[in-house]
Structure formats: C-alpha cells, structure tokens
Amino acid sequence: MRALGWWLMLVGTLRLASVWFGFFDIWALRLAVFSSTQMTEIHGRTFGVWTLLTCTLCYLCAFNLDNKPLYIATFLSFIYALGHFLTEYFIYQTMVAANLTTVAIIAGTSLVWMLVEWDSHSIITPVSSNSKKSQ
After folding, report:
1. What residues does each domain of the chain span?
2. Distance between CA atoms of residues 96 and 88, nearest Å
3. Average pLDDT over residues 57-62
C-alpha cells in the first residue's frame, strides 16, 4: 500500500473517534468540535453517521487508489468537511479556532496530497497486438 493509502487509513481511524463521540458521548463531541453551541443527542448521532460515511470513504479509497470515481468522492468529502467546519467557525461561530485548526490540518493535508497524486494511481493496461491490427 502506498503512503497516501496509509494516510487515508489513519484519517479514517481518527474519524472513528468522532463517530464514537457522536453516538455515545455527545458532550465529548461538543467539547472537541462544537464548543460554542448547544448540541442534542440527535445532532450527535447525525454527525456520527455523516462521519462514519466519510470514514468508510477513506478506508475504501485507501485500498482502491486506482478507482477514480471513489478517489474523487473521497477528495470531495474532504472539501465538504472543510467547507462545513469553515462555515461553522466563520458564519455560525459554533467552533473555536483550535478545533478548526485540527480539522484544517487533516483536511488540508489530505486535499493537497490527493491533488499531488491525482493521476499517479491509474492502472495502465497494455495494448494488445490484436487491437493494433484492427485499427
């Protein structure tokens, strides 16, 4: 597995902590992420399910870096997550800068790394001699 795959596995595993907090420890999620607002248990579970989906994308992409649609979906999940947290911080003011910084470092690193390796995971299939003859 390439280094990007290992990074995505790490990110997916870190996201599992947020899933746990969302389902079983809403107050830890509030302190760790949304420290400037009230949260209900339904908010925590919704956040947990959304985060579980992004965690799943990270794991699937880590093992299938050559799958372009999956790669794009994972890449977009980082954009959506970063966009979500940026709006929570700048517009709704439900987060503090320290919590945003952690998210921005992980999402930013992932986005840059995935952009750098955008076309380096394609499977190259050799052209057979039969297909050359038919042309």
Report:
1. 3-118
2. 9
3. 98
